[in-house]
Amino acid sequence: xxxxxxxxxxxxxxxxxxxxxxxxxxxxxxxxRIMEExxxxxxxxxxxxxxxxxxxxxxxxxxxxxxxxxxxxxxxDEDLYIPILTFVFGEAQLGGRCALMSGHRLHQEFYGLPEDxxxxxxxxxxxxxxxxxxxxGLKHCQNFECVMRYSNSVxxxxxxxxxxxxxxxxxxxxxxxx
Length: 178
Ligand SMILES: [Zn+2]
Ligand SMILES: [Zn+2]
Fold this sequence. Notes:
This protein is an alpha/beta fold.
């Protein structure tokens, strides 16, 4: 990955984008900038599920990567789904250059608990690194603490670290921050 572009989508609050634009370069060793682009959400809203179709929104990001060398992560706060699953935290093109994540289910408030901004931001960071790891060709890792471990709940996310394990770092050919 040579450059990373972060595109805030929908009602995403700016502080999340700002936080990620500072933290992701440290973890991924890549420059990151925020790009404001109009990404349509409404056509991909499913009113029965009250969620947005992840794959369709991810597809909206592809033109922003075409002909460029950068990777893209779209960051949003609306709830995402793919038809076979109740929800997804995010989605990415395996070995491609586009990724998408939602912070919707990363808020403590979502689970009826008092909001914890710091915890929320760090969960967003792990989810962003995870999806971008997929764009770099990484599949799910069995190491419980590796950021590439599959997460089905925030409990799973909270167990993980925000960095690639030594094995995943080796695959990527980058120094391990473990
Ligand atoms: Zn994954
Ligand atoms: Zn790993």
